[in-house]
Write a structure and sequence with these properties.
Layout: H1 43-50, H2 54-61, H3 68-81, H4 87-94, E1 99-103, H5 115-130, E2 134-138, H6 144-153, E3 159-163, H7 170-177, E4 182-185, E5 195-199, H8 201-214, E6 220-223, H9 230-245, E7 254-255, H10 261-273, E8 278-281, H11 284-296, E9 306-308, H12 314-318, E10 325-327, H13 330-346, E11 354-357, E12 360-362
Parallel strand pairs: 1-2, 1-3, 3-4, 4-5, 5-11, 6-7, 6-8, 8-9
Antiparallel strand pairs: 10-12
Length: 374
């Protein structure tokens, strides 16, 4: 069952990771300097100033369960003394490094050219930084088997976030089979142990296709994403479902693409040969290519052929005409994946988290305002 997004407390590295680490005792001189002339404060000093036990101070520092009034009192002492926990000692105490692995299956030279992956990474990095955690990034410059070996070989990682876009992925399978806390971006519904963040691609594609049908379009073609990927297959399923519900036959109106401009152009050329009056593309980049193919034929958007995409990346609103698309909040998916992982690290015993984020149909001029061909 999917869950709505939840907030988690700041990541403090206090929980243990399913047997990967052992806790060790904290030395008495656990802290660095203070705001009082640089004098050091031990946990015993702080406990005396707070009127609580040494163990209670430790729980407050490490985010453990403490009564709210007690927590406030200890935090006031920490603030007044300028207390800062020594990072090395804190790592020893918690068994955590504060470093999260991130795996994205994209070539390094394309990362910041690809608006989807760059926004996804920005969301992850922003949330981790806000919670005091760092990240180590793996991109698609090695085989997936090599990436898996490297990630699992990094024993200091607290957990990992991985883009799970393909249905068959040895990195995802290997991480889910390991003891390393893992959150997927992209679903694995059949694996009840998997935590993931995703959108309902089937429903979003259904909504988009239904929108085109409501405009009187009856020969609607679909340009898929890369076949074998979670998002592409789900969007095909949603397209087919909406077409058949409306009594329209989708057979012969689906052409494989590859989530890029070039494949959008080539696939649109095939669909135009089949006399389509609308094209729904699996992403905005494909739609940009399809738009160029439509114009090459001397046809108008949306008068002759309505056009729609998926993602609502920056390019969608800049196309001429602006593109009707599905807004899926890519950066928010990155934020939520980081949030879910930190929740799992704070509470290793909790059940897997499955978060489906909402999407929005964004209607622009590429689908409305024209008159379908009669």
């Amino acid at each position: 069952m999917a869950h709505a997004p939840q907030r988690c407390p700041p990541y403090d590295g206090s929980a243990f990771s399913r047997g990967r680490w052992r806790g060790v005792l904290v030395p008495k001189a656990f802290t660095q300097g203070s705001g009082n002339g640089g004098a050091a404060h031990t946990l015993d000093d702080l406990a005396a100033l707070s009127g609580v036990s040494r163990a209670t101070v430790s729980r407050v520092i490490n985010g453990g369960p403490v009564a709210e009034g007690t927590r406030r009192r200890v935090l006031e002492v920490l603030e007044r003394t300028g207390f800062r926990p020594n990072a090395v000692a804190r790592t020893l105490a918690s068994g955590r490094s504060g470093v999260v692995g991130v795996v994205m299956h994209v070539d390094p030279h394309l990362l910041f050219q690809d608006q989807y992956f760059s926004q996804l990474l920005q969301g992850i990095a922003d949330h981790l930084a806000g919670q005091g955690a760092g990240l180590m990034l793996w991109l698609g410059y090695r085989t997936k088997e090599e990436i898996l070996d490297h990630v699992l070989g990094m024993s200091f990682l607290d957990g990992v976030i991985v883009s799970a876009h393909t249905l068959e992925d040895p990195v995802v399978d290997g991480l889910l089979a390991s003891t390393l806390p893992t959150v997927l971006i992209g679903h694995r519904r059949a694996d009840l142990t998997a935590s993931y963040v995703d959108i309902d691609n089937e429903q979003a594609a259904d909504v988009m296709t239904t929108h085109l049908i409501s405009l009187g379009r009856t020969r609607i073609g679909h340009i898929t994403g890369t076949r074998g990927t979670v998002h592409a297959e789900d969007r095909v399923t949603g397209f087919q479902r909406a077409m058949r519900r409306a009594g329209l036959d989708p057979d012969g109106l689906i052409v494989d693409g590859n989530f890029n401009v070039q494949s959008g152009f080539a696939a649109a050329a095939q669909l135009l040969d089949r006399n389509v009056d609308a094209i729904f593309c699996a992403n905005d980049a494909s739609a940009a290519g399809a738009l160029e193919a439509i114009r090459t034929r001397g046809l108008r958007v949306p008068d002759d052929v309505a056009l729609a995409g998926f993602d609502d990346l920056e390019l969608a609103a800049r196309l001429d005409p602006p593109l009707t698309t599905v807004r899926q909040g890519v950066r928010q998916q990155g934020i939520e994946a980081a949030r879910v992982l930190l929740q799992l690290l704070q509470d290793p015993g909790r059940s897997p988290r499955r978060v489906l984020l909402p999407t929005e149909l964004v209607v622009r001029q590429s689908s409305v305002g024209g008159v379908p061909r009669g």
